[in-house]
Amino acid sequence: MTVSIPALSSAIHNHRRAVAALLLAAALWSSSGLFIKIIPWSAVAISGARSAIAALLFACWLRPSTLRFSRLQWATAICFTGAQLSFFIGTKIAPAANVVFLNHTAPLYVIPLGLWLLGERPKRADGLSMLVIFAGMLLFFSDGFSSARLVGNLWGALSGVMMAGMIVGMRMQKAANPVESIFLSHLLGSIVGLPFALQETWTLPTVTGVAFLGVVQIGLSFILYSAAIKHVEALEATILTMLEPILNPLLVFWVLSEVPSGLALLGAVLVIAGVLTRACIGSRWT
């Protein structure tokens, strides 16, 4: 994490390189579902070990001895920690497609939270996107009524709620560096999850998988995203990073032959449509 983000950002000086960097970041994010499935640890243990590695990487960059966290940063970090834990637990239990797209229902909650905490009035596109996303969410919960799938879906939905809290918390931090909240969230995640990880069996393949999640899936992807985001428009970034929820279940299907149901696929289409509708129409009317 000693890489200089400004230096890398200047290296990604043209639009084509920025697009490539964002696509690669989204592809790295998408690998989480597969590794959560194949690493033979509990979800909390995997999340804690990954967060410990990520926290060390961010600490090398931020020099945390000089940091003083505000209450808002603590609240934001708690939300992000909750989102990560919920996502990991849900992915262990339910199909990866269900959980990753339920996680992406966050805009459904960002809209009312933004009105309440930021005074942001919903735009015309927001009402339509909320209806479409909510319809997709209902399809996931109609996708079979086995206890395991229902519990996994509930964890996925909770991850979307917590992610919305993190997004709004980030937007409320006018002067603070948002990376500080991300570092704090991984620090909290490691405190919660490392005791579980220490009780697991440590093998070379397992350690390699966890190290990949911490160094590459989180660390490298964050560097790429941070360097590229300044060189693309917000709408374009939204569209490009939607590769993550699409590729996530495809990787799980390719390696583990986990096939999403028809209702889950339809729900995924609606969630993507809702998110992109809000981004596209919202950018046109603002």
Structure explained in plain terms:
- The chain crosses the membrane at residues 43-62, 74-94, 100-118, 125-142, 154-170, 182-198, 204-225, 237-256, 262-281.
- It comes from Candidatus Entotheonella gemina.
- It is a multi-pass membrane protein.
- With 286 residues, the protein is mainly alpha-helical.
- The protein has one domain.
- 79% of the residues lie in helices and 0% in strands.
- The protein has 14 helices and no strands.
- The protein has helices at 5-11, 15-30, 32-38, 43-62, 71-93, 96-103, 107-118, 124-141, 147-172, 178-197, 204-228, 234-241, 243-256, 262-284.
- Helix 1 packs across helix 11 (204-228), helix 2 runs antiparallel to helix 11 and helix 4 (43-62) packs across helix 11.
- The two termini are 37 Å apart.
- The mean pLDDT is 87.
Question: Keyphrases for this structure?
Answer:
single chain, 286 residues, mainly alpha, 14 helices, globular
Short summary:
The chain is built from 14 helices and no strands. It has 286 residues and is mainly alpha-helical.
Query: What's the end-to-end separation, in Å?
Result: 37 Å
Low-confidence stretches: none
Shape: globular
In this structure, how is the largest beta sheet organized? none
**What is the radius of gyration?**
18 Å
Indicate the structural class. Answer: mainly alpha
How much beta, percentage-wise?
A: under 5%
Main location: membrane
GO cellular component, one term: plasma membrane
Keywords: Cell membrane, Membrane, Transmembrane, Transmembrane helix
InterPro entries: Diverse_Substrate_Transporter (IPR051258), EamA_dom (IPR000620), EmrE-like (IPR037185)
